Amino acid sequence: MNYILMSLALFIFTLPHTLFAATMPTPPEDCFAEQSYCHKYEIVYDNDIRYIEVTIHAEIDASEFATSQDIINRYFDFDHWFEYLDGKDAVRLVTSTALPTTVEADGREYIWHFSHYYTKAPFPLWSMQIKEVSYYRKIVPNPYADAQVAWEFDLKKGRIQIPSLGEDFTDSWGLKYKYGQLFARFDQEKQKYYVLAVTRVIPSIDLLPSVAAPYIEASMLAIFQGVFDL
Question: Quick check: 59 and 42 in contact, CB under 8 A?
Answer without folding.
Answer: no
